[in-house]
Specification:
By secondary structure, the protein is of the alpha/beta class. The chain has four domains: about 160 residues, Chitobiase, domain 2, CATH 3.30.379; about 300 residues, TIM Barrel (Alpha-Beta Barrel); about 140 residues, Hyaluronidase post-catalytic domain-like (Methane Monooxygenase Hydroxylase, Chain G, domain 1, Up-down Bundle); about 130 residues, Galactose-binding domain-like (Jelly Rolls). Helices cover about 35% and strands about 20% of the residues. It has 19 helices and 27 strands. The strands form four sheets. Strands 19, 20, 21, 22, 23, 24, 25, 26 and 27 form a nine-stranded antiparallel sheet that branches. Strands 11-12-13-14-15-16-17-18 form an eight-stranded parallel beta barrel, surrounded by four helices. Helix 1 packs parallel to helix 3, helix 4 runs parallel beside helix 5 and helix 14 runs antiparallel to helix 15. It holds the Pfam family Glyco_hydro_20b. Keywords: Glycosidase, Hydrolase. GO terms for molecular function: hexosaminidase activity.
Length: about 775
């Protein structure tokens, strides 16, 4: 591919006195080639029959949005004589003579969906812009890049003098609506299609698990009203150059060998083809291959098992690909999701798939796990070998439909996918949350990565995603970044999250305690209080009007809780400052206010919920913000005690009533090792316990418990001076599994032992705790 004088250098390094504005997704090649072009009151758009209509309409709308009072669309060679001095924008295929001349040495890449942009400021022929596409999608994407090149000058709008030669690294980019729980509404899906157009995502897979006609009623046609909605959605997708992919998941009840079942499946696909759909998927995930749905399959494929299941599935998929997809003009290759979709183990199932599945069929793969902590080039190449073709990644981020995501919005950036994956994959689709607008943060990054994985930088892409949601408003963008830090946790199905919670807040809290313990207490309070005020004020800024309203609706319970947590933090810091100044009564009043605000924050609920996890407490900076407040309160309560209060558990010795199956990896010592990735787990009875023997007798002000999903519906905290005689100091009945903070009486005696005593289990398993903290101070 020739790109003329341009070179694929980072945008920030473009040789120009005026930096170009950021463009997302990051182009393959962008640089300054001349002066900015002025948006004149009247603008000419030169287009013809080969100009993509959607690109033309969006171009006209953007020009009017950025200062043009009048936009005239004229054919090439029909420009009026009065056009001299007006901004002239040429839009169409790169081989159109007038566009080729205007592009100069900026060449259109010879790749599908490729495009070129060249902006020339005032010169002998006035202000000129050329937008050229390799195909219709390329033209549309050229306009999407131009949309981001508008800059406001002292006397009106201009277009930055950029030259761009660009194309996607991956053919397929977008989302799969594949979560459990309340599906998106029709209006939300229409909005998503517009969003995908903006971020140059070209794929949307319709596969909501709780649409009855997708799975349970797969043989039944959609009702007329639902079919009409789907038709409108197909048209909106096409207008944004998004490939609407219809998925039907028959695996729970299909008889693979039954001709009537196959006829019903193809009739379902035909109805969508008649609406304009040209891409289809048959997911076979989350089903059993240890049983058949009919005796005919036993006769046709043998006893149920891995190999027999693969034979039956391949028989169906090859039939659909060869007799339906291949016979329907314009239809894209069939997509499928294998039953074994999330590992790199070679099995009889995969061996049969790679040996017999039609080479045209796209196979989806989720990585090395259902929610993989990373995806590497080596893993993707391994998956390609297993399935006999490049795989299409179904990335289960930011989906929040499983237990470990209970109460969470997942707002961390798209990350930990290795540069170079474009050489090993046909594409990536992100599985979003039940909350569509909040999902845009991660989907923005996933589209950025899939477009140009070699240049992707999560740290740069994340603020751009927030700016997109904020409509470019700087204050709202910063508020969204504060919220995003508090919702940064990205869980897996296991114990260890693949993205940590609140990294920016954690950094500031660590700096606070370092300064505080070094004696710079006023400076420590001032610094952290400023950020705490930002936390408190972020919800009001986000709700102030600049941020997409859909996001504020999606995030409403989290915004409510964030404001309360922020206020609680400000009050606690003020209490520390008051106590440091000698105002004991004022400090106690502020501390009590903080505790009450914390109570209110933990009482907020996501209700009614969209997620299958039901009504839940919205998690906000948990494990960081709440722990800081406990630590600060302990310092206040134990102000006059030597040491001032700290987590005593790591220096203590853990013991337990039992360990699940006597597994060393679940031993009691893991409950105070300081690692959230390890845990203690008990035997399977209600009266199990775990305790910390402290290094010395101590005044204890609070106990924290970071539960795994096997938690308690009721438990007590007990203390002892000698390990024999025990006193119950608190009884807890938490609503769910999470991080519990148990405050102990301020006048409690010094103790040596602290125990969590189980009363009633939430599950049939035992009790499981990642970390137990004991906050207080040794007494001399």
């Amino acid at each position: 591919m020739a790109v003329g004088v341009l070179s694929p250098v980072p945008q920030a390094e473009a040789a120009s006195p005026t930096p170009l504005p950021p463009v997302s997704p990051t182009p393959q090649s962008i640089g300054r080639v001349g002066n900015d072009a002025v948006v004149t009151d009247r603008v000419l758009v030169v287009a013809d029959a080969r100009t993509d209509a959607a690109a033309r309409d969006r171009l006209v709308a953007e020009l009017k949005r950025h200062g043009a009072d009048r936009v005239d669309v004229v054919a090439p060679g029909r420009e009026p004589a009065a056009a001299v001095g007006l901004l002239t924008v040429r839009l169409g295929p790169g081989d159109r003579p007038d566009i080729a001349a205007a592009l100069g040495d900026t060449a259109v890449p010879g790749r599908a969906e490729g495009y070129a942009v060249r902006v020339a400021g005032s010169g002998g022929e006035g202000h000129r812009i050329a937008l050229a596409g390799k195909d219709a999608a390329g033209q549309f994407y050229a306009v999407q890049t131009l949309r981001q090149l508008f800059v406001r000058g002292d006397d009106g709008w201009k277009v930055a003098g950029a030259g761009v030669a660009d194309f996607p690294s991956m053919p397929l980019r977008g989302t799969i609506e594949g979560f459990y729980g309340t599906p998106w509404t029709h209006a939300e899906r229409l909005d998503q299609m517009d969003f995908y157009g903006d971020v140059k995502a070209n794929t949307y897979v319709y596969a909501p698990k709780d649409d009855p006609y997708h799975r349970g009623k797969w043989r039944e046609p959609y009702p007329a009203d639902k079919l009409a909605e789907l038709g409108e959605l197909v048209r909106r997708a096409a207008a944004n150059h998004v490939r609407f992919t219809f998925a039907v998941s028959p695996g729970e009840s299909i008889c693979y060998s039954d001709a009537a079942h196959r006829k019903d499946l193809k009739a379902k696909l035909q109805a969508m083809y008649d609406l304009g759909t040209r891409a289809f998927s048959v997911p076979l995930d989350d089903i059993s291959y240890t049983r058949w749905n009919c005796e005919g399959d036993r006769a046709a494929y043998g006893e149920p098992g891995r190999q027999a299941a693969a034979r039956a599935q391949v028989d169906l998929l090859n039939d659909v690909q060869r007799t339906f997809v291949a016979t329907h003009p314009g239809a894209q290759p069939l997509q499928m999701v294998p039953t074994e979709y999330g590992d790199l183990t070679d099995t009889a199932y995969k061996q049969t798939m790679r040996a017999t599945l039609d080479p045209a069929v796209e196979v989806m793969w989720t990585g090395t796990d259902v929610v993989p902590p990373s995806i590497t080039d080596q893993q993707a190449e391994g998956a390609a070998r297993l399935f006999g073709r490049k795989v299409f990644v179904w990335d289960n981020y930011p989906v929040n439909d499983f237990g470990n995501t209970r109460g969470r919005l997942l707002l961390a950036p798209y990350d930990k996918r290795e540069a170079g994956l474009s050489a090993h994959l046909t594409g990536i689709v992100a599985n979003p949350m039940n909350q569509p607008y909040a999902s845009k943060v991660a989907v923005f990054g996933a589209a950025d990565f899939a477009w140009n994985d070699a240049a992707y930088d999560a740290r740069a892409s994340w603020p751009r995603a927030m700016a997109y949601l904020a409509g470019g408003d700087r204050e709202a963008t910063e508020a969204l970044l504060v919220l995003g830090d508090l919702e940064h946790m990205a869980p897996t199905f296991g114990a260890t999250p693949w993205q940590e919670q609140a990294p920016e807040l954690a950094r500031r809290v660590a700096r606070f305690w370092t300064s505080w313990d070094a004696g710079a207490r006023a400076e420590a309070v001032t610094s952290l209080r400023g950020y705490a005020k930002r936390i408190e004020q972020a919800p009001a800024v986000i709700r102030g009007g600049s941020v997409e309203r859909g996001f504020t609706v999606d995030a409403a319970p989290w915004l409510d809780a964030t404001e309360l947590w922020g206020r609680a933090t400000v009050r606690m810091l003020d209490a520390l400052a008051a106590r440091q100044a000698g105002d004991r009564d004022g400090a106690e009043e502020l501390r009590a206010e903080s505790v009450e605000l914390q109570r209110q924050a933990t009482a907020v609920r996501v209700d009614p919920p969209r997620n299958s996890w039901g009504s839940a407490q919205p998690r906000v900076g948990d494990g960081v913000l709440d722990v800081f407040l406990v630590q600060a309160e302990v310092r206040l309560q134990l102000w006059d005690v030597a040491g001032g209060g700290e987590n005593l558990a790591p220096k203590g010795t853990a013991a337990a009533s039992s360990v699940e199956q006597n597994l060393d990896r679940l031993a009691a010592r893991h409950v105070n090792d300081g690692l959230m990735g390890t845990r203690w787990a008990s035997g399977y009875t209600d009266d199990e316990w775990v305790q910390i023997e402290l290094a010395a007798p101590s005044k204890v002000a609070a106990v924290t418990l970071a539960w795994e999903s096997a938690c308690a519906t009721e438990y007590t905290i007990r203390t002892s001076v000698n390990g024999t005689d025990w006193k119950t100091v608190a009884t807890q009945r938490p609503e769910g599994c999470g991080n519990d903070v148990v405050r102990l009486p301020a006048d409690a005696e010094a103790v040596r032992y602290v125990r969590m005593q189980g009363v009633d289990r939430r599950t049939t398993w035992g009790y499981s705790i990642h970390e137990m903290g004991v906050y207080g101070a040794p007494v001399s």
